[in-house]
Design a protein that fits this description.
alpha/beta; two-stranded antiparallel ribbon; Rossmann fold
Length: 755
């Protein structure tokens, strides 16, 4: 009740001041239009005396503007205390226009009193303008009180509440990875830093394809760790995108290492640019558990569905069999034949020979007891199923390139050996992922054991597209590698992908044990999980209620997500959210970030253009040390014509109804030539070394069509194009071409090969 009485009292005061303002206007017109009023016979003697006294004592009417100013002052005071019903459609532009119009009409009309008309006419015109001006000024004053001052539409995405101050200091140490950023806070852009001061607490980089996780984060991780003298392992899913970066960064920073590191590459696609390494080297296999782990890694990479079925009979049986074979090769002649290719070849022997040999070793009897029971019990079908479960997937890996790479010993996998530091890049191929992943998984599992030891050099393990390969023991590595100075960086698209390929339990361990996290655009459960991880912040909320009499505004605060899932789902390319871990003495108050990582694209582009290619490691040579050359026999023109005619067919052309097509009374024939196949046949005939139509060689490549042999032997497109060009030129079929023509010819040859 008291509040209502106060409001009524305020309203009366405002009305009184507005009345005083109107009185000043009336008095103003009476004084300055006095002649017209006298002519109208309306003069009042008492009023005249009062006004004369005001003039004599205060000079109120000495100037035309004085009374007008007093009128406006009292009008403004009355408007200040006016409470109007809020109107969302009211705008400042409308108020300004009305106010300016009122000022012009109210103050700029003095000259109307001097018009060449009668005093009465001049007074009428003057009164109308001053009244109109006064009304417009009154309207603008009232409208100000009706303005909707709490306009929520200015920040529809709640950016102001969800922006926060981030780290602006550059915090470097001998291990750190530092990324420059730009973020928005309080409506302005700030330059900041993401400081991964402790990379040994593991890092994961999330983001949908195209979010920029490799370009902005993973590439920088490679560059900065190499620049700080880390021994490095890189899993390059799309070889050689990351490997070229690592190679060139090593060339620039070779002086940062106390002991000059060696650069190694594992690449099954091009053995010439690949070193050789035996992942089941007998030197590093202490007992049969190492063999079991290797077998486990191989089979789970070949059969990703088995990850979810660990412990099942038909999952464990082939793994145990493969482990027994690996351990047999380890103990036979002190591991002389302990390689992965020998394992595959041994497994493909008749199972009677396999079990006869294996059971002759007492250390393998317990491992083979289920198989021997099935064999002696006459359960041949069961036994065949157990063996086939291992044999069939492993048979896919029979490849000369893979065999070559995995039987050598150019280096060992102890990458962070202080006396022999190494940079190792292991390349995969998306087109042959199912074949290569098992072999590459062996390297990974061995590296995990050998790297994670005390007293070794600081090292980094960088794996992009983690779900494409089963990395056994990665969860334990993350949990235990910090004390051994092993920095793990894992890149993948989202948590669901990780759970699909690694299983829910292992995926959860990986998610929950990493200390540093970067996330570009992700959606669904991953976005929700991250939003919950980043926590909540105190945010301001406003609500406005408008009725016919009054407007009420309420402001409250509440805890809400710092970075909502919806915002993570709509991040721009190059923009990341995440958090970092800190150290004792290097505390980071604001560990969470939401910013755009700054990458100097022009500088990166210039560096990329200047990059050197990974050098050729192997020039395949004969026993005399000379590079093996192609031997080409010149074919006669008759033989070339004969081959071309063999791939020429002539058939009757048919119309749309399937009837012979007749033109001019004659049957039309259709000529078809398979030029690509004819070209490949000519290459087979012309090449004397290697002899592509050799039966043993064709059997080795599992090829029955001789015209497919060039593609099998020269598997790389550029190699095939080169061989085709050389052979055709020697036969006089192809001439000398310009550089551009040669490029086009190569592309055509590659396309023909694919066809």
């Amino acid at each position: 009740m008291q509040q209502e009485d106060d409001l009524r009292g305020l309203a009366k005061v405002m009305e009184f001041m507005r009345a005083i303002s109107i009185i000043f206007i009336v008095v103003h017109i009476y004084w300055f239009c006095y002649q017209a009023i006298v002519e109208m016979g309306i003069n009042i003697g008492v009023v005249d005396k009062i006004l004369l006294n005001f003039q004599n004592t205060a000079g109120l009417f000495s100037n035309l503007l004085v009374t007008k100013v007093f009128a406006i002052i009292f009008l403004a005071l009355s408007c200040l205390g006016t409470k109007g019903v809020k109107n969302q459609k009211m705008t400042w532009q409308k108020i300004y226009a009305t106010f300016l119009g009122g000022l012009v009409l109210f103050f700029m009309n003095w000259w109307l009193l001097d018009l060449p008309f009668s005093p009465i006419v001049n007074m009428v015109i003057y009164t109308i303008t001053i009244t109109a001006g006064y009304i417009l000024l009154l309207m603008s004053g009232v409208w100000i009180s009706r303005m909707f001052k709490h306009n929520h539409m200015e920040d529809v995405f709640n950016v102001a509440n969800e922006s926060f101050m981030q780290e602006t200091r550059l915090m470097e140490n001998e291990y750190s990875v530092n990324l420059p950023t730009r973020f928005v806070y309080q409506g302005k852009e700030w330059d900041g830093w993401i400081n991964v001061v402790n990379p040994f607490r593991a890092t994961i980089v999330l983001g949908t394809p195209g979010s920029g996780k490799s370009y902005a984060v993973v590439n920088n991780y490679i560059k900065q760790t190499i620049a700080k003298g880390f021994a490095t392992y890189i899993y390059d899913y799309k070889f050689d995108d990351l490997s070229v970066i690592a190679y060139n960064e090593l060339l620039k920073n070779i002086d940062k290492y106390k002991v000059k590191p060696s650069f190694y590459v594992i690449n099954f696609d091009d053995p010439r640019r690949s070193h050789r390494c035996n992942p089941i080297n007998p030197k590093f296999m202490v007992d049969i558990s190492d063999a079991y782990e290797s077998a486990y890694t191989i089979m789970l990479n070949l059969n990703k569905t088995w990850i979810q079925k660990q412990g099942d009979f038909f999952v464990e049986s082939p793994i145990i069999l493969l482990a027994a074979i690996i351990w047999y090769l380890r103990i036979y002649k002190d591991g002389k034949y302990c390689t992965f290719p020998h394992t595959i070849e041994f497994l493909n022997k008749p199972y009677a020979d396999i079990f006869t040999i294996l059971t002759s070793y007492p250390s393998l009897e317990n491992y083979l007891s289920p198989f021997m029971d099935a064999w002696k019990g006459g359960a041949q079908d069961q036994l065949q199923g157990q063996i086939a479960s291992a044999k069939i997937p492993l048979s896919r890996m029979i490849s000369p390139q893979l065999y070559w790479v995995m039987t050598g010993d150019d280096f060992t996998l102890d990458l962070n050996n202080p006396n022999e530091p190494k940079i190792l890049c292991v390349g995969n191929n998306p087109d042959r992922q199912n074949i290569y992943s098992a072999a590459l998984g062996l390297y990974n599992s061995r590296i995990v054991k050998l790297v994670n030891k005390k007293g070794q050099l600081k090292s980094s393990i960088i794996i992009d597209e983690l779900p494409t390969i089963y990395f056994r023991g990665i969860d334990n590595l993350i949990a235990t590698a910090r004390s051994n100075k092993v920095a793990v960086c894992l890149g993948f698209q989202d948590y669901s992908q990780l759970a699909r390929d690694y299983g829910d339990k292992e995926a959860k361990v990986i998610q929950n044990t990493v200390g540093n996290i970067f996330s570009g655009q992700v959606v669904g459960e991953t976005a929700k999980n991250l939003s919950e991880r980043f926590g909540k912040i105190l945010q301001q909320r406003q609500s406005v209620s408008i009725n016919r009499q009054d407007t009420s505004t309420s402001i409250n605060t509440q805890l809400d997500f710092l970075i909502p899932a919806s915002k993570i789902s709509n991040l721009s390319q190059g923009t990341f959210v995440g958090s970092v871990a800190d150290n004792f003495g290097e505390e980071i108050d604001q560990k969470i970030f939401h910013s755009r990582i700054i990458v100097d694209s022009a500088k990166v582009s210039a560096e990329t253009k200047a990059y050197k290619k990974i050098p050729i490691v192997n020039e395949f040579k004969d026993e005399n040390g000379k590079v093996i050359q192609l031997e080409v026999k010149v074919l006669s023109s008759e033989r070339i014509r004969e081959i071309n005619e063999a791939y020429h067919t002539r058939s009757i052309a048919l119309d749309g109804k399937g009837n012979p097509y007749i033109s001019g009374g004659n049957v039309v024939f259709r000529d078809e030539r398979d030029n690509a196949k004819a070209t490949r046949h000519i290459i087979v005939d012309a090449l004397q070394y290697p002899k592509l139509d050799d039966p043993e060689l064709m059997k080795y490549y599992n090829c029955v069509d001789v015209t497919m042999m060039p593609e099998k032997v020269f598997s790389r497109a550029d190699e095939f194009a080169h061989v085709t060009r050389v052979v055709m030129a020697l036969l006089g079929i192809g001439g000398q071409l310009s550089e551009e023509e040669q490029k086009q010819a190569d592309e055509k040859e590659i396309d023909d090969a694919k066809n």
